[in-house]
Amino acid sequence: MTISRDYNCSDMKCLVVAATIDESFLANKEPLIAVQSSWVDPYGDDLRNRIDAAGTQYIGIDYRADLRNATRDLLALQKDALDKLGLFKTQLEVNFDKPRYAELLYHFGFDSYYHKVRRNNQEALINLLMQIRQNMTDELKTEITAKGIAATLLDDLTAAADLIHAANIKQESLKSGTAGNNLEAVTEFNAIYNEIMAICKVAKRVFKGRPEIKAAFSFAKTLRALGK
């Protein structure tokens, strides 16, 4: 007998996303408990333990110690790069006239990739960073830093592509194992997924005025951030 999965991703990714969102729950639990009393302590910790147990029992590895750490590192690198790209774009805008600003955006790849990068497209992020690195000549760097833009920002951006690529390779190397169509395993994965989705639905209402927190409770966005 087989059972359909309620989630549209691998079992491993479902657990990693669930664990990541549970961490967001634990970091922002007070407003959520205030509207949903059944989530009072130790609900968040119990859910974390349940997710960990499912990974160990049904997938057969201690994914939290390895894959989640690798994923956390990758997400941190991506967020840092996105923040610095936004700063770089803004500084180009305020320091150059409109024609030169448009030329620089095109030259560095913002026109081609930035709209996808803002939607957490990992491939577009790497492509944009690689184009910046490739096209950041000494002459351009001199022109840009002469406007007062920090050279360290440019150095960080040109180094970021390799850092994210290496972190992505490490993460991919840890994605192994599958639960197949084991009825017990998929039933548990579905239960965890639906528990997490309930948290996401409530959190999106509770944090509707705080988009930076609300985004952390999106299963789809967190999944996309994991990359392929």
What does this 3D model show about the protein?
- The protein is mainly alpha-helical.
- Helix content is 76%, strand content 0%.
- The chain is built from twelve helices and no strands.
- It has helices spanning 11-27, 29-35, 43-59, 63-95, 98-108, 110-117, 122-135, 138-145, 151-174, 183-206, 211-214, 219-225.
- Helix 3 (43-59) packs antiparallel against helix 10 and helix 4 (63-95) runs antiparallel to helix 9 (151-174).
- The longest helix has 33 residues, at 63-95.
- 30% of the residues are buried.
- The model has no long low-confidence stretch (mean pLDDT 88).
Write the layout of secondary structure elements.
Elements: H1 11-27, H2 29-35, H3 43-59, H4 63-95, H5 98-108, H6 110-117, H7 122-135, H8 138-145, H9 151-174, H10 183-206, H11 211-214, H12 219-225
Helix pairs in contact: 1-3, 1-4, 1-10, 3-10, 4-5, 4-9, 6-7, 7-9
Bulk shape = elongated
Q: Residue ranges: pLDDT <50 for 5 or more in a row?
A: none
Provide mean pLDDT, rounded.
88
Q: From the helix content, strand content and strand pairing, which structural class follows?
A: mainly alpha
Write a compact overview of the structure shown.
It contains twelve helices and no strands.
Keywords:
76% helix; 12 helices; mainly alpha; 228 residues
